[in-house]
Design a protein that fits this description.
It is built from eight helices and eleven strands. It is an alpha/beta fold and 278 residues long. The strands form three sheets. A six-stranded mixed beta sheet has the order 6-7-9-10-11-8. The protein has a three-stranded mixed beta sheet with strand order 2-1-5. The chain is globular and about 80 Å long.
Length: 278
Amino acid sequence: MAACPVAPSLPFEVFLNVVDILILEAEVTAEPMDLCFYLSSRSEPESRLDVQVTDLFSNPRWTLRNRKRRFEQLRLALQVNSKTRGIAQRKFPRMTVWDSYSKKASPLWVHPKTDLFNPIFCSMPSDCIQFRQALQYPLAQDRVLVQSLVNIQGFPRDFLMEEYEADVDSILALPNIKEITLNSEVVITSASYRYPEIDHPHPSAELIPLSGYFFPTIGRWTGWHRQALEYFCWRAEERGIKVFVGIGGSAERRKLELVPTADGLRSRLINPICTCDI
């Protein structure tokens, strides 16, 4: 009886191409997950920062499903060998997070270009110093978090107050930060309502004055802390950091980009604040 032919093995280079395609698909389909980070209250020599899934902008139950879906996409690359695992973790670094829904700590493969991080600021001077040191000189277990802080959201409305100055300095000094989304109330307008003194803007590349009517929080900032807000935006621009304004501070609900100019702070509307096209 003739022996059955042995199927040729798949060349490893071809297999790596398959892994690359799987990782690329995971990147393209990655949905943002909301996480918060803060100074740890635990006395551990390996870590000074904690991370957890936040329910501030999304449902932790949805985030849990999102995490499982992301892991399923990366499972093959993570489990074959150290080489494929390293390829996956260059795009999706692994960190341990606390999940408030499942009530346990578990690994999460974050996507820094997509995922959104909300800082929990300190107010005590001693804590601010520790927070700054933890971000500027991260310990081994905190390094992945600090390198992943690209998109920051959820700044408190009173972030311009003096007690947050050290924390804000720490955020602006992060090595990979690209975007910050501030928190503001937004007045969503109706096309059927005519404003007696002001016409509502529509998204465009045009720079327009800040509107305290449609963005009440910004109106208070410019009334009480105009110089501090302008200084913050100038410092961010010098570091190549874009500053946005979103409903509730959510980067997924951005409405406005703040742009410092020689004539003062201006804004660019990037998403509608009206129902004209509905």
